[in-house]
Amino acid sequence: MRRTPSLSSLRLFMQVAVTSSFSETARLANLSQPALSRTIKLLEEELGVRLFDRNSRNVALTPAGAALLPTVERLAGDFDLAFEELQQTFAGQRGRVIVGALPSAAAHILPAIIAGFRRTHPQVEIILRDNLSGALYQQMLDRLIDFAVTTPPGAGEGFRFDPIMDDECVLVCRREDADGIGTPADWALFAAQPFIAMEPRSSVRLLTDGAFAKTDMLVRPLYECAQLATVGGLVSAGLGITLLPRSTLPMLGVGGEIAWRPMAPPRVSRAIGIARLANRTQSPAAQAFLDAVMRHAVVDAES
C-alpha cells in the first residue's frame, strides 16, 4: 500500500460494489462518471491492486476488492457512529454535567429540574455535589464542577452570576410558639430568646450576622450548627428560635413541629443564582442543563 486512502474514495468504492454500476454510483454521488472512474483508478494505484473487473455491461469485484469491502463497510460504519455520537454531544444530548449547589438548592430546587432534564436528555449524566458557597467557588476555580447554584461571589473574583430567585429571611420557631409571635415578627425577639445559628463559615450565617448588624442588634447564638437538620431538631425541642432563608425551610420539617413567620422591616434576603467562571466555555451538555435551570426559574417567577 503506497499511502492510506481517503474515506471519501473508500465510500465511493463501497457504493460501486453495492450497485455494481459506475453510472448509478456517479448519479447517487452527484459526480460525473469520468470523475468517479478517476477516483477508483487512483484508489487502485494507492492500494496497489485492481478492485473491479468491468466491461461495457458488467462490474464485478476482484478478489482484492472482495477482501477490501467488509473492511470498508466496518470503517464507514464506525466513522458514522462516532460522528453521530459526536453530533449528539455537540447538541447537548450526550455528556456529563457536574453541578454544585448549596444544600438547600440541592435538596429542593434541583431534583425536579434534573428529573425533567433526564426525560429529554436521557444520555446526559448529571452529577450533583452539594457544599457551602465558599467551597463551591473553589471547586469552580479548580474546575471540579461546571457551575453552581449558590449565592453571589465577591467582587472581582472572575465569576459570572445570574440570579434566579430572591430568598427572603424568616423567623423559624416551634409550632406551638408561633401563635404568640406576631405577623410580621419583630426583630427584638432574637435578642429576647435563645438563638440557634448556622456555623460561622456558612453563607446563611453571614446573612444572619449581616441582618442583625443592619438592625443594630447584638445576638449571641446559643448553638452553632453545621447542618440545617440539626437546627430543625433544636428548634423542635424548644431550645430556641432562628432566622433562615425560606429556601431552607423544607430541610427543617416545617409544617410539623416547626413553623415560620415573615419578618418586619427591614427586609433581609439573599440572591440565589447560577455562578460559573466568566472565562470558561460550558460543554454543550452543561449549557443545556444550565438553560433548563434558568427556564425553571422564569416559570417559578411567573407562577
TrEMBL record:
Gene3D superfamilies: 3.40.190.290, Winged helix-like DNA-binding domain superfamily/Winged helix DNA-binding domain. One of its GO terms (molecular function) is DNA-binding transcription factor activity. InterPro entries: HTH-type_LysR_regulators (IPR050950), LysR_HTH_N (IPR000847), LysR_subst-bd (IPR005119), WH-like_DNA-bd_sf (IPR036388), WH_DNA-bd_sf (IPR036390). Residues 5-62 form the HTH lysR-type domain. The keyword Transcription regulation applies. GO terms for cellular component: cytosol. Pfam families: HTH_1, LysR_substrate. Keywords: DNA-binding, Transcription, Transcription regulation. Belongs to the LysR transcriptional regulatory family. This is LysR substrate-binding domain-containing protein.
